[in-house]
Write a structure and sequence with these properties.
Helices cover about 25% and strands about 35% of the residues. The chain is α+β, with helices and mostly antiparallel strands and about 230 residues long. Keywords: Membrane, Signal, Transmembrane, Transmembrane helix.
Length: about 230
């Protein structure tokens, strides 16, 4: 085999090796889940269903979680002025470890008319795993503080997880198998595994660079042999 053909083969092999590494990168799966809330309010029991979306973005040693409500889950018999309502909730983590992550959000940015479903602002919090592996995130209890009153809304339909994610504990402690239950949904554009994909992509690039270095060495060696 000529030096030129050998060099081309090495480049192709290196590129394929990098691609193979990228294809093994873990993916996060999410689904918008309908959560049926049973609410204890100052004016009696209420119920409502809201689609819930949970996203995760890697930040430092942890993951920033954002819980979004697509419909209101409660209402007030009187108008709630701007900033009068403060929401908070918990996100239940299951799988490699079981914990509850508190999340909270800003007060209502606009006044809420009476007898109108209260739209909950996005709630966020930080989850720092203590064990590595596959975990799921599910909507938990929602609490609404307004006008010196408290409304507590509990999921009554045993909702499915809104997000499944492979997480890595700081230092890689407590590594567990990533095999777990199937979930359906789209792949998130920005989650913790994206960082893993980038790291793996860097590894693929290193393989490619090593191949290029081998090509240069072989080419120069061939030139010296011919001279």
């Amino acid at each position: 085999m000529s030096d030129r053909k050998r060099s081309t083969a090495l480049v192709l092999a290196s590129a394929l090796a990098g691609t193979a590494v990228l294809l093994t990168a873990p993916a996060a799966h999410a689904a918008v889940v309908d959560v049926a809330y049973d609410c204890k309010t100052p004016i009696g029991d209420k119920s409502a269903v809201s689609p819930i979306d949970i996203k995760a973005v890697k930040e430092g040693d942890g993951y920033k979680l954002t819980m979004s409500f697509q419909k209101g889950v409660s209402s007030s018999p009187i108008e709630l002025g701007k900033g009068a309502m403060n929401p908070s909730a918990v996100i239940l983590v299951d799988g490699a470890e079981k914990v509850s992550v508190p999340v909270s959000g800003p007060p209502n940015p606009e006044a809420v008319p009476p007898d109108t479903p209260i739209r909950i602002t996005d709630l966020s919090g930080t989850y720092t795993p203590k064990k590595s592996g596959k975990v799921t995130f599910t909507a938990g209890v929602l609490t609404i503080m307004a006008m010196s009153t408290t409304t507590t809304c509990t999921p009554g339909n045993n909702p499915k997880p809104s997000l499944e994610l492979d997480v890595t504990a700081p230092g890689g402690a407590g590594t567990q198998s990533a095999a777990g239950a199937d979930t359906t949904g789209d792949t998130l554009p920005q989650t913790g595994p994206t960082d893993s994909a980038l790291a793996l992509g860097t590894l693929g690039g290193t393989v490619l660079l090593s191949g290029a270095a081998g090509v240069l060495w072989l080419t120069r060696r061939g030139q010296r042999a011919r001279s």
